[in-house]
Structures are given as structure tokens and as C-alpha cells.
Amino acid sequence: MPFVSNDHDHPTGRRRAGLGRVCAAGAVGLVATGLALAAGEVTAALTGPGTSPVVAVGSAAIDLAPTWLKEYAVRSFGTHDKAVLLTGIYAVTALFAALVGLIALRRPAVGAAVTALFGALGVWAAASRPTARAADALPSVAAGLADAAALWFLSRSLRRATGRAPDTPTDRTGPPDAAAAGPPRRTVVVATGAGAAVAVLGTAGGRRLADSRNDVGAARAAVRLPAPAVPARPRPAGVHPAVPGLTPFVTPTGDFYRVDTALTLPAIDPRDWSLRIHGLVDHPVVLSFEDLLRQPLEELDLTLSCVSNEVGGRYAGTARWLGAPLPALLRRAGVRPGADQLVGRSRDGMTIGTPLESVLDGRRALLAVAMNGEPLPVAHGFPCRSLVPGLYGYTSATKWLVELEVTRFAAFDPYWVRRGWDRTGEVRTASRIEVPAPFARVPAGDVDLAGTAWATHRGVAAVEVRVDGGAWQQAALAADGGPDLWRQWSHTWRGAAPGTHRIEVRATDAGGRTQPETRRPPFPSGSTGWHSTVVTVF
Description:
The chain is α+β, with helices and mostly antiparallel strands.
């Protein structure tokens, strides 16, 4: 067989053959890991979506990430931060898989042993979750076993098909021995391709099965909300200036911001839900969802904002909420002297600590079950979440709420406090320019300026704007919907001349405190500073 012999003996032929083996080994590693992910997803369909290896590792990465990295992710990627994290995990996993495939080309046993790290990492991540159960490790165990078995089989088959069977010397001066050569290359290609197909179908099928098993859409649709015992007061006319481009006064539910650490949304059937109120109370309380709906429900128009908001940021929204008054439930339980913190626990293990005095000082704190006239969306805490006006969400808004513990700050540090954030979480006065948009081009003459300001639970008393560092001008405030709501403003910039101009805004709350000029980042207690935008007048 002169053609075969010359091709293998020629340096170019040997390089091509070597490159082919490297690519094939990388593909084997990728397919084996793909099968592992499929095994993990299928198993997670039985144990819960949050237990899949990728989600478990991603959740652990979120918990371990330093505060500055979390803030960078929110600032850079916004609500897409979780998608970016998962993409990064998949990319790193793919590189790891290809490397393991190369190792297994020479040492299949070593490659298979290295893949055990994949499973072990998933087991550790699943076990590290606050709500971990023994069964949560099963998807990662299944993934590790599938990875090791597939890598062992495919890598040994590849070695034999390319004439590099373990412990079998090759004779380059003649044709390879048929017994040593093992299965033909076509068989290896078919097996690898079949493995890839199974990996794709298994992963997609496992996720679809998990989604169907954990879908609470029908249960949510079946919820019948009672009429509120205390309806929200009608909003005054004129709360929203008629300026094109200005944010709606009430945020559509689909546009409401979402910032949390959940890679998979907890799916809770309200028929299985209960809320436990315990700790430093005289009479612990357990409520079913039906019990909660039988409370005298109240409507509350409330603006929520996130502590991660940069100056001028979009992480704020207003909705009409319906829920049971939280202070009444706590008084029924009988709060003991010395208690100063209320810890909410989510189904996914998140802990949110609220100053107890802020719940019992007369403000309308709720256990909300509805948002804008419909049961809470799953992404916003269905079936129940807490709301406390005047505080950022990280100290007041526990989504997927299942437990409330009355305790002391000295006894327990909740999730964000352990990461260095302020315990109180009082919303800072904020204002932003929404019209014109940043770097907009506007015609010379009179230019409409407009935006939104909030100082939740204190109220906004004044908004001022200035252009190019000139004198501050009072903006016209829209009608006041109440101290728990944001307030929109407008102003006409007279005689705008051609050129590039900088517009700034600042707000003053009802207590007379004006936003400070100095910009500070969100950590540890919320951002401060004047919002500004640059426009070009032509």
C-alpha cells in the first residue's frame, strides 16, 4: 500500500494526521461532556431545575462572587447578567471538555478520572445551597458517571481506530495489524455523532421535562383574587405629564425590573405553599395561601427601587400591589421585647433582613399576592412576597416568601449584610432625566425636558434642572400621588442654542434634604449624585 505508507511517512502527512487526532480528541471530550450535561438535566427534571450541575455551579458562583464583581455584572449586563454567567460557564466547560479529551487520547483512565472533578464540583455546589437535600446531588453524580463512561469508551475507540491503541505498538513500515487497528474510523465518527445527537436531545428534553414538571402557570391562572378590603385611593389627575418619551407613571408588569440571584425561578404551587411566622413571638403563626387570601387585603400603589441602581439608572418601577397587612399579622403573633429585625426567607434560601421598626411604625407593609390586578408573576415572587415602603428591595422585598422570623440584628446577618451592605437600606432621594434621551439631537429653540424623581416614603418636594452649569431652574412637578410613589417633572428649556450642552437634575425630598452633588457607587447603601445627560442642539 505505497500511498498509505508515503502519506504517513511524509512530514506533512504526519502533521495532518496529528492535527486530525487532536481535533477528534477534542470532539470526543466535548461529546462526552455533552452527554454528561444531558444526564444531569434529565435527572434534574426529577429533583428540581435548580439542581442541574450548571445551575448549581452558577448559583454557587453567584454566592462566592465578591461584591464588586456582582455590581460590575449588574452595571454592565443589567437583567442579562444571569444569561452572561451561564454562557461563561458553558464556555469554560467546553474548553475543559476539549482539554480532557486530549488527555484521554493518551491516557483514557486519567481522562476519565479528571472528569470525576466535573461531577464532584457539581455535588459540592448542590450541597452548598441553603436549602440543599441529599437528592440534590444526584444530577451531578449522574453527570460525572456519564462523562467518565462516555469519555472512556470514545477515547479508547479513537485510539484504536487511529492505530494508537493502548499498549499496542504500531509498525509504520507496513499496513497496521487488523486486530490492533480496532474499529474502523467510520465507526468512531458514527459513535461520536450519535453521542452528540443524544447529548443535544437529552439536554433539551431534560429541560423541557423539568419545565413541564415545575410549571405553575395553570395554578397561577386558577387563583381568584378577592376584592380589596382597603382599595387604593384614585390617582390624582395629572400624575403623568404629556411629554413623549417619558416613563409611564405605572410600570407595565412585563417591563418591571428584576434583580435577584435566582438562576432558576422557584416554582411554587399555591396549594402547597405556607408561610411560617416564628422566632421572638408569643404565638407562632402558619398560614396557607387560602388563609392569606382570607385576610382583609389592601391595595397599595408603591414605587420599588433597587440598591444596585446607578445614578440615573432604570432599576425602579411603580405598580399597584394587593396583599395582607404585615403589621397586623405580626401583632397577632405577638412580637416580644428586644426584637429588632424581621428576616424573610425565600424558597430558594435567600434571606432578607428588615428593620422591625420600619414594619411597625405605621407604614403600609404588605405580604403581596397580586401586582397590577393579577396574581404575582413567577419572576416577581408568586405566590407571595413582602413589601415595605421606604426601603430598597434588598432589605424589604423577599420574593417567593415562605418564612418570616422575628429576631435581632445581633443574632443573625442576612444574605446581603454578610456581604457588606448596609443593614437599614433606606431609599435615597433620586432623580433622572428621561427626555431628551442621552446624546439626542434636538432642534434649536424651546426644548422639552422631563423625567422622574423619587424619595420613597418621604416624598418629593422639588426638582431643579440646569444647563451647562448655569442657574438652577425649578421644574414643574406633576400631581403628587403620595409619598410612597415617584413623582414626574417637566421643564421647558427656552432658546436652546446650537451646540453640545450638558443638562443636570437634582431633587429635594419632603424633609428638605437635597440630593448631594458628589457621585457615589451603589455599595454599600445606594448611589448618590446628580444625574446628567449630554445633547446636541442643531
